[in-house]
Specification:
Chain A: Belongs to the GMC oxidoreductase family. Chain A: Keywords: FAD, Flavoprotein, Oxidoreductase. Chain A: Pfam families: GMC_oxred_C, GMC_oxred_N. The complex is a heterodimer of chains A (about 500) and B (about 200). Chain A is α/β, with parallel strands linked by helices and about 500 residues long. Chain A has eleven helices and 18 strands. In chain A, a hairpin with a 2-residue loop joins strand 7 and strand 8. In chain A, helix 1 packs parallel to helix 6 and helix 4 packs across helix 11. In chain B, helix 3 crosses helix 4 and helix 4 packs across helix 7. Chain B is mainly α. The chains are: A alpha/beta (about 500), B mainly alpha (about 200). At the A-B interface, helix 2, strand 3, helix 5, helix 8 and helix 9 of A face helix 2, strand 1, helix 6, helix 7 and helix 8 of B. Strand 3 of chain A pairs parallel with strand 1 of chain B, so a sheet runs across the interface. Bound molecules: flavin-adenine dinucleotide and iron/sulfur cluster. Iron/sulfur cluster (SF4) binds next to loops of chain A.
């Protein structure tokens, strides 16, 4: 392959598929440890300065190959779809960076529902701290729900939505605050300070938003890792002993094979499952593709008399963690609340799908953009039997069948959504909003290759190594045993650092 | 006639708060698309135009001028796609063609005329039934409802992306910063505008 630095037949120590939240940190750590590492990335390499806030054009970094969405509450992917490019979904993610609540690691022990993680928050905490330090996370100190949490940067200014949420929460006696945002407000390391442009989901042009492209991947390449963009992995080769020996990938229409000593799948919860189902590997448990989850991401919107200009400022600054275990809950687990600014097309799409309007009412609603104010929830989701990723019978890229994603809310998700809708409506009303409407919504692609101690009920061990294949590891959102309420990127990156440590330690040992 | 954006918005597009790339994207979008229909049949495009007049009416937003949302959606259907579809629907372009044919047939059944020939009242009654899920034919009621959700999403995206609409609504989202300097926004919070947002 043109431009490849490592000969394809010459096995690299470790091959990583995917360069998002899961793939990037482990790549950087292994490169630093002196291993010969290569990452294959299906999407292109972008130049941050060329990003445009135009939402239609910015769709180039969404996963564009068709996914089939089924179930009673099928997920509307579009702009919420995973990413495609060097940096993965973190190119267009929202940079909201809460830590997982300690209770969410043990939901089963607490409630008898869901599953426990094979370890608790203390295990992950040192790795989360390392991630935060390396990428840069802004926030208020002391942070109300964890006074010992340190931030590298002070919070950016509050936009109209953050002001409204804080005002509404104060009126109702709900503690709320500026939240943890993965961006820097002091320029350093060739990255600019946040300029409040509001286009985080269209890509940060000055490097203020903390992604993996401007942190772990940069370091990985400095330490000798090779990243190959435009390379879609579609085959995994094994030897008679069942070990992985290499990967087949397609680049500009031509197939190549890269030999490797160890393989790490970090293609995201949909694509990792798809690749394993397609190759039939690592699935003795029959669990690959199962336990698919998505956050309960209810949104509530209203109209303020003041001008809000929702495109301005870091979009989701305010947070409250007071609903993590609400006293009047008729569900297990909990949810976080964040304030919402939003770019116009994304917002209009929510109006279109969520409000059921048409005719002059629809046009009028859209004309109100500059007064719109929103709040969003992110809540835990239980695994259900029917919720899973399978292969459809339609061929996709490189003839790999397109993935079919079935997702339906269960009773717990419905109850949580109803509670969140009530709470968000009350906060917005207390903030002075009118014409309030709500939309059920879900976000993120979670599960499909659960980690655990039991090879019967999980796909990988608590460090991410396949129970079946000794030199195959998985490091992305697919390994989460439960969804937890927190936005996921921090924990995915932390798991990636932890895996790197374990992988280096176990190398050479069976 | 195609609508123009107000002069204040054109001045913003020309300013150093917008990059050359974004400016070019907006300039291209201000022009009608060529080569329609690309994905739909000529009949399908006609039906879509008639339907969109009822679903997302432009009223007197631009005087007599109109953004032809139908041809923009047709162009989008011929493009790379947006990464997903409802599994109960066929691929996007086919779903559009079949849904529009289903509506057209329902129009003939109930009101004696296909979509493009219906008067506004009959068209709106048809849309109300579409929203309720009581129109079926090539697609069933549930499929038609899902498709209606897709249609509205596509329509509002093409609408809000248009410079004339952003100008009319005073939206500053394109002005995140220029090529030389990425200025962003300084006036953050309710009822605060940058000096250069004053006329929007
Ligand atoms: C719109 C949006 C907003 C979000 N906001 C937040 C937020 O505010 N806070 C937060 O914590 N999280 C947020 N997230 C979630 C977060 O970005 C993801 O959970 C996280 O990036 C997932 O990491 P991952 O490693 O599983 O996959 P990804 O980051 O998606 O990376 C997977 C990579 O693998 C590549 N790939 C896939 N298949 C192949 C293949 N076969 N061959 C080669 N390469 C392949 C993909 O192109 C992609 O680059 C958001 C996500 C989205 C979509
Ligand atoms: S708001 Fe800040 S972090 Fe987000 S894209 Fe703009 S400059 Fe980057």
């Amino acid at each position: 392959m043109k431009g490849a630095r490592h000969a394809l037949t010459d096995p690299v120590d470790v091959l990583v598929i995917g360069t998002g939240a899961g793939g990037a940190p482990v790549l950087a750590e292994l490169a630093r440890a002196g291993l010969k590492v290569v990452a294959l990335e299906a999407g292109p390499r972008f130049t941050a300065r060329d990003y445009t806030p135009d939402e239609i054009t910015a769709a180039t970094f969404y996963w564009r190959e068709e996914r089939l969405s089924a179930g009673e509450t099928p997920q509307a992917f579009g702009g919420n779809n995973s990413g495609f490019g060097v940096g993965g979904s973190m190119l267009h993610y929202g940079a909201f960076m809460p830590r997982i609540d300690a209770r969410d690691f043990h939901l089963f022990s607490e409630t008898g529902q869901g599953v426990d993680w094979p370890f608790g928050r203390d295990t992950l905490l040192p790795y989360m701290e390392r991630v935060e330090e390396e990428i840069g996370v802004s926030g208020p100190m002391p942070y109300p729900w964890e006074p010992t949490r340190r931030f590298t940067d002070a919070p950016p200014p509050r936009n109209a939505a953050a002001e409204a949420m804080l005002r509404g929460c104060a009126a109702l006696g709900i503690r709320a605050s500026d939240g943890p945002a993965a961006l820097i407000t002091r320029a350093r390391n060739g990255r600019g300070a946040c300029v409040n442009c509001g286009a985080c989901h269209q890509g940060c042009r000055n490097g203020a938003k903390s992604g993996v492209d401007n942190s772990f991947l940069r370091r990985a390449e400095q330490d000798g890792a090779e990243i190959r963009p435009g390379c879609f992995a579609h085959g995994i080769e094994t030897n008679a002993a069942g070990r992985v020996t290499g990967v087949v990938y397609r680049h500009e229409g031509v197939d190549y094979r890269q030999a490797c000593g160890t393989l790490i799948l970090a293609a995201g919860a949909v694509e990792t499952a798809r690749l394993l189902l397609h190759t039939g590997l690592a699935n003795r448990s029959g669990q690959v593709g199962r336990n698919y989850m998505a956050h309960v991401s209810t949104q509530v919107w209203g109209r303020l008399p003041e001008e809000t200009r929702p495109n301005k400022g870091y979009p989701s600054l305010a947070i409250t963690e007071e609903m993590m275990r609400p006293a009047d809950a008729d569900f297990v687990g909990g949810y976080l609340i964040q304030s919402l600014g939003m770019m116009p097309l994304t917002w209009a799409t929510n109006v279109a799908r969520g409000r059921g309007l048409w005719g002059p009412d629809l046009t009028r609603a859209l004309a109100g953009y500059n007064h719109a104010v929103g709040l969003g929830a992110h809540g835990d989701c239980l695994p259900h039997d029917g919720n899973r990723v399978t292969l459809s019978d339609e061929p996709g890229m490189a003839s790999v069948p397109k993935p079919l994603i079935s997702f339906s809310y269960g009773a717990n998700e419905r109850a949580m959504h109803a509670h969140a809708e009530r709470t968000l409506r009350a906060i917005l009303a207390a903030a002075g909003a009118e014409d309030i409407w709500a939309m059920p919504r879900d976000a993120h692609m979670i599960g499909t290759c659960r980690m655990g101690n039991d090879p019967e009920s999980s796909v990988v061990d608590p460090f991410g190594r396949s129970h079946d294949i000794e030199n195959l590891w998985i490091c992305d959102h697919s390994v989460f045993p439960s969804a937890t309420a927190a936005n996921p990127a921090l924990a995915i990156m932390a798991l990636s650092l932890r895996m790197a440590e374990n992988l280096t330690a176990r190398r050479g040992r069976p | 006639m195609i609508p123009e954006s107000p002069s204040t918005f054109r001045a913003l597009l020309e300013s150093d708060h917008v990059t050359a790339r974004t400016r070019a994207v907006m300039a291209a979008r201000a022009k009608p698309v060529s080569g329609a229909p690309r994905a739909l049949s000529a009949e399908g495009l006609e039906r879509l135009r008639a339907l969109l007049d009822g679903v997302l009416p432009q009223g007197d937003l631009f005087g007599d001028a109109r953004i032809d949302l139908a041809e923009r959606i047709d162009a989008r259907l011929a493009g790379p796609g947006d990464g997903w579809r409802f599994a109960i629907l066929p691929p996007d372009a086919i779903a559009y063609e079949q849904a529009l044919a289903t509506l057209d047939a329902a129009g003939r059944d109930s009101f004696g005329a296909g979509l493009p020939a219906l008067d506004a009242a009959a068209r709106d009654r048809l849309i109300a039934r579409l929203a309720e899920g009581t129109i079926s034919g090539l697609l069933d009621g549930a499929q038609m409802q899902r498709w209606f959700s897709d249609l509205r999403a596509d329509a509002v995206q093409e609408f809000m992306a248009h410079p004339a609409v952003q100008g009319a609504f005073g939206i500053s989202a394109v002005a995140t910063g220029g090529d030389r300097e990425i200025q962003g926004f300084e006036e953050i919070g309710a009822d605060r505008r940058e000096r250069w947002e004053a006329g929007l």
